[in-house]
Design goal:
By secondary structure, the protein is mostly helical. 76% of the residues lie in helices and 3% in strands. It is a multi-pass membrane protein. This is Olfactory receptor.
């Protein structure tokens, strides 16, 4: 085979990520905004993890799942934002094929794991509100560990399978990915080989790993709301709803934006809007989740106050 012919049939060594749009005057502003979001996201989620570990009042299955979710959010944000920050800072929008596949793998891993973790948290709230007498025997620490481990393992398996199919595709010709990270559909748009197998496998796994956890969340909250409405006193209803309201908000925001992104047609007119919604669920959701839990949850707020008082007392005594 001639060298020129070989070059025309091999995949490129790097891609160009178009990002949020080629507006040089906004690069500094976008960098500062992304940096603030990243730092606050990391600090808030790490703080949640530390509170769950340090405060014995938070040593319950519900907060164990919350700690797992916050740990996942730190990884999730780093997968997307670290590369985006480097692009804003250096002006270099290229990413190697291996780097792109690595980002795609970890993004899929954390996305699927989060879907299952949210479903596990909904199930935990269902047992606590709808089966309160059986909760302690059903949601033991062993069961909590198994459910959390299953969430991470299913994410690992799913992303490994999908990435193996995507990485076998040939990416020749145009190397430009019209997105700010390496996502499934934008990657297929620049592939020049048959993508049917990758599409079929991904669609099948998406039904099991995105749709089924969503339906599980939905079923849990239908039962929870029905149980709350049967409580005779308004104080009792308010107390019961307060234990799951923060999680319900997180689930609604996460799945709302996720459904819009992956059901919205990727027409030229809607691509920028698609990026906006993608920015929301990949970058803003990990930022607002710990804020929602800390503002809505009395036990988390109390644990935070206790930690701040201890830190202040330690500072004043120069310990």
């Amino acid at each position: 085979m001639e060298k020129g012919e070989w070059d025309n049939h091999t995949s490129p060594v790097e891609f160009i990520l178009l990002g949020m749009g080629n507006v040089p005057s906004l690069q500094t502003l976008l960098f500062l905004l992304s940096l603030i979001i990243y730092l606050v996201t990391m600090a808030a989620n790490i703080l949640i993890v530390l509170l769950v570990v340090a405060d014995r009042h938070l040593h319950t299955p519900m907060y164990f799942f919350l700690g797992n979710l916050s740990s996942l959010e730190t990884c999730y944000s780093s997968t997307i934002l670290s590369r985006l920050l480097a692009s804003f800072l250096t002006g270099d929008s290229t990413i190697s094929v291996h780097g792109c596949m690595a980002q795609f793998y970890f993004f899929g891993y954390f996305l699927v794991s989060e879907c299952y973790l949210l479903a596990m948290m909904s199930y935990d709230r269902y047992l606590a509100i709808c089966q309160p007498l059986l909760y302690a025997s059903l949601m033991t620490w062993k069961v909590s560990l198994q459910l959390a481990a299953a969430s991470w393992l299913v994410g690992f398996f799913t992303s490994t399978v999908v990435t193996s199919f995507v990485s076998r595709l040939r990416f020749c010709g145009l190397k430009v990915i019209d997105h700010f990270f390496c996502d499934f559909t934008p990657l297929l748009e620049v592939a020049c080989s048959d993508t049917n197998a990758a599409r079929l496998v991904t669609f099948t796994l998406a039904v099991f790993n995105l749709v089924l956890p969503f339906l599980s969340n939905l079923a849990s909250y239908v039962c929870i709301i029905a149980a709350i409405l049967r409580i005779p006193s308004s104080v009792g209803r308010q107390k019961a709803f307060s234990t799951c309201s923060s999680h319900l908000i997180v689930v609604t925001v996460f799945y709302g934006t996720l459904i819009i992104v992956y059901l919205m047609p990727r027409t030229p007119q809607l691509r920028q809007l698609n990026k906006v919604f993608s920015f929301f669920y990949t970058i803003l959701t990990p930022l607002v989740n710990p804020l929602i839990y800390s503002l809505q949850n009395r036990e988390v707020r109390e644990a935070l106050r206790k930690a701040l008082r201890k830190a202040l007392a330690c500072t004043q005594s120069s310990c």
